[in-house]
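Q: What changes when 8-methoxy-2,3-dimethylquinoxalin-5-ol is included in the input?
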Amino acid sequence: MSVASNIERLRRQLEEHNHRYYVLDDPSVPDAEYDRLFEQLQKLEAEHPEFASADSPTQRVGGAPRAGFVEVQHRLPMQSLRKCADEDELRDFDRRVRETLNVESAAYVAEPKLDGLAVSLSYEHGVFVRGATRGDGATGEDITENLRTIRRIPLRLRGDVPPVVEVRGEVYLPLAGFKRMVDEATASGDKVPVNPRNAAAGSLRQLDSRITARRPLAFYAYGVGYSEGWKAPKRHSQALEQLRDWGFPVSEHVRAVQGIDGCIAFFEDIGRKRAGLGFDIDGVVFKLDDLAGREELGSVSREPRWACAYKFAAEEAQTLLEGIEFQVGRTGAITPVARLKPVFVGGANVSNATLHNMDEVKRKDVRVGDTVLVRRAGDVIPEVIGAVLEDEAAREAHLLRPEPEMLTECPVCNGKVERVEGEVVARCANGLSCRAQLHGALIHFVSRKAMDVEKLGEKLLAQLIDQNIVRSPADIYDTTKVNAGVLTDLERMAEKSASNVIAAIEDSKSTTFQRFLYSLGCPQVGETTARDLARQFGDIEALIAAAERDAEHAKAQRALRLAREAQEREQDKKIRRSEAERAPAYPELQAVPDVGETVAAHICLFFSEPHNREVIAKLLEAGVNWPAPKAAATGNLSGKTFVITGTLPGVSREEASALIEANGGKLSGSVSKNTDFLLAGEAAGSKLAKAEKLGVSVIDLAALHRLIESAD
Ligand code: I6G
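A: The predicted holo structure follows.
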């Protein structure tokens, strides 16, 4: 075989593999085989530069940087789509189509509208020769080299091809690829892209196509533009089939729909599937299927009358960042909040949005005065995604604005602001002396899943705080402070209401240890952790005693670490951590399922605070009570400690835990030398490895049942 035909054969093979992998999602050879063919072709092309060709698969890796982009005149304008903001507008569109064509009901093709960038791809005799952006519709920019790097864009068409054809479609960035770009930019300290569309646009506008080649861009074709020598079919749906045959990816979600009802049903259906598509869409494009009908309808002001885009309510919008303020939560956490020029986004007017924490503010580099992108999706709290710095003027103005700084004092009580090592959240250190924390703590304390004090609402609590009646949760049960007389003196408090509140307070005293623990509002102790702590320790004294022992243990371990680190510095070499240093820092608390070092540290800190201990003592004194812990069940598992890992066949973790406890066994969250049995299901991971290393008995569910039933 001649070199030329060998090169040609390899190119065809590689393009075929590309098509199967990237377009059909059905690879026919392993990656290693593809790489082998690719290297073979690269070698032959290097040895025979006379056979170089721009449509070779080896050209997809990008080439030398260019100085700028050249303008391209579109041979047929790239029109824009008429937008329908609501169902009425969609109905108007359909009515006009039916009236012009004089039909009862029109057949449409419905396609998800990708949130990407429209491009035009020109092929001559089946070979990709030019690719351009939409630009202003008449003139775009030549981005051929960048588009060549997108594997889903064929460099050569398959089957029967006309001498000239221009294909139109959308370049976009799938969400997984976007996440990868964000992670990489965060790790390298580069500017983080604000959304997949901007990331795709930035990637396509790279002057160095080798950079574009590294971006995981994708493409869907949606129509044919200019052509020569192509006999267009009668229907758009057939044109899409033709595009598939030529080797283009066409969205698998495209459907033929009948009439306005078909359009609305499709829109609702894709809206439900939207979150699981793996890429952003911002609506649906409806196009008349009959191409002759399209001729009849024509266009108006550069928009075809035979198509429209019915958009979802935008989840992202740009607006002015007017200020950054700080909110103090019930645990003292200080959250920067963006004050925005009100903007309609995600179906609501938004004027405040979270900025999460100061690390995020730094990472996003947003400054007061910037135009920012705000996102509000579903019920999620609106958030600022980043500054919109699209042109040089915006970038310059941004750089002149001061960088936001973290407060050194609490904005509510002027208390000290502290940041625990390793945590991103800064907190006001003033505890319940800070009004914001006190109000938040009280709201939490009386809430339904905590002490469940009905009738004691946020406004009433605010009054009790502002009048200096209540200064800690314990004061709620102090009848010298909160009583019917005091309450009736408050605003909008009739006698009847006051006595209802007093009765509700009294009622709430009988509770459970779990609720009581949860109501204390220790950072990181939610409902589930409170339940697990309550199960493990049974009562408050036992928990506090364990927290004290663990705090001592962690202190000793920290001393070991510091000593080793000092030794390392002295000897200028790494020293292996001793077993004592590697053991859990808070052994008793970390034995509770899902309690790790951070949660345990918070629990210890909370119970070491004299003020918290005082509140607990007062609450108990005032009569808050719960049933004594049940005596540990006796049974064949008495005195044995179990850890559960992996998926157990046919039973949930909760069921297995209950079974162990009902037979006298104890549960722990982590494997240690004190563990007697590891109950392991499928896909058991590191706990299994640790148990094997420590020689802990590993059992399955059947063995657990045998243990329970055995006589000894
Ligand atoms: O911008 C567009 C996105 C998607 C389109 C489009 C489309 O079809 C799925 N179709 C046309 C006809 C135009 N723009 C002009």
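Observations recorded in class: The two ends are 80 Å apart (CA to CA).
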